[in-house]
Amino acid sequence: MAGTDKSQLGKGIGENLVGPAIILIDPQLGENIGMTARAMLNCGLTDLRLVRPRDGWPSKTAINAAAGADSVLEQAHLFDTTSEAIANLNLVFAATARQRAMTKWLVTPQQAAKEISKLGANSCGVLFGSEAKGLNNDDVALSDSILMVPLNPGFSSLNLSQAVLILAYECYKLKNSRAPLEFVMQDSRPANKIEMLGLFEHLERALDQSGFFHVREKRNIMVRNLRNLLQRSSPSEQEVRTLRGVISNLTNWNQRKDYD
Questions:
Q1: For residue 42, what pLDDT is reported?
Q2: In angstroms, rounded to a whole number, what is the distance separating the alpha carbons of residues 182 and 211?
Q3: 235 CB contacts (<8 Å, ≥6 apart)?
Q4: Is residue 144 situated within a structural domain?
Q5: How many domains is the chain partitioned into structurally?
Q6: Rounded to whole angstroms, how far apart are CA atoms 214 and 222?
Q7: Is 225 part of any domain?
Q8: Domain final residue, candidates 177, 207, 223
Q9: Is residue 188 a part of any domain in this protein?
Q10: 54, 127, 159, 144: which is closest to 90 by C-alpha?
């Protein structure tokens, strides 16, 4: 496919792409990827990111199902992990219809569109899981909020492209009804996902070294809880650097104490 260079997978996300980024994790069918691209372009979105598509990439079935939205597919970026796919984003939503055993802000597509408009669409993204299983809890833990479409509780199942279209349309309506609000922050910009991931890993390494995760069976859920707590605080880039400085200082102090 023109415009697809496998040597550049996951690198150099173009500034010309229009967000929010639509991030499909473990998509199974090329048809669904193509229909998602069609729904995106209907609403002027072009930033499509694919994490481990089951049937490989590029996909002829995706092209056929896109019904002319080839430009979205040609610019699509591939990633091995969710963390890599969201690394340059500041705000991430996880689209899911299932209740999760974690504390997260819950927003509708309309509310999400307002947050995206306020922060800037190109710095935001939405995670969508596989057709069969949806998002796993580790992916949801990387998000700032859960995106849930309020539908008939007796039958709320959506096709992947339907779910994308609902969110994309809310963003399109807001963008074309009034100018987006400017996000104002004193002295420092909001932390992006690569900075948040660095904070998570730094904290988790320190807690591993201190023996905090002594019950290994509980480590994964404790890590998710800590990540959710930090995500909800929406720290600035400067605040993330301060927190990492605190962790480093405490780690070094404990090491010095051990030598005394």
A1: 94
A2: 44
A3: 190, 191, 196, 243
A4: yes
A5: 2
A6: 11
A7: yes
A8: 177
A9: no
A10: 144
Among 232, 59, 215, smallest CA distance to 141 is for 232
* pTM score: 0.72
In terms of residue numbers, what domain contains 59? 6-177
Strand partners, 50: 24, 78
Verify that 13 and 109 share a domain, yes or no.
Answer: yes
The answer to whether the beta carbons of residues 252 and 209 sit under 8 Å apart is no
Same domain (yes/no): 222, 168: no
Query: Quick one: 20 and 136 in the same domain?
Result: yes
Are residue 160 and residue 226 in the same domain, yes or no? no
* Residues contacting 215, CB < 8 A, separation 6+: none
Q: What is the pLDDT of residues 69-113, one digit of tens each?
A: 999 999 999 999 999 999 999 999 999 877 777 888 899 999 999
Spatial separation of the C-alpha atoms in residues 13 and 176, rounded to whole Å: 25
Q: What is the pLDDT of residues 14-48, one digit of tens each?
A: 557 888 999 999 999 999 999 999 999 999 999 99
Q: Is the residue at 186 inside a domain?
A: no
Decide: 87 and 72 in contact? Cβ < 8 Å: no
Instruction: Classify 11 as helix, strand or coil.
Output: coil
Residues 6+ apart with CB under 8 A from 17: 46, 47, 75, 122
User: Residue 131: which of 6, 216, 25, 232 has the closest Cα?
Assistant: 25
d(CA 89, CA 188): 16
Do residues 224 and 138 lie in contact, with contact meaning Cβ atoms separated by under 8 Å? yes
Give the Å distances, CA to CA, from 66 to 24, 59, 74. 15, 11, 11
Residues 89 and 34 in one domain: yes
| 51 and 100 housed in the same domain | yes
Q: What is the largest CA-CA distance in the chain?
A: 70
Give me the pLDDT at residue 162, please.
Answer: 94
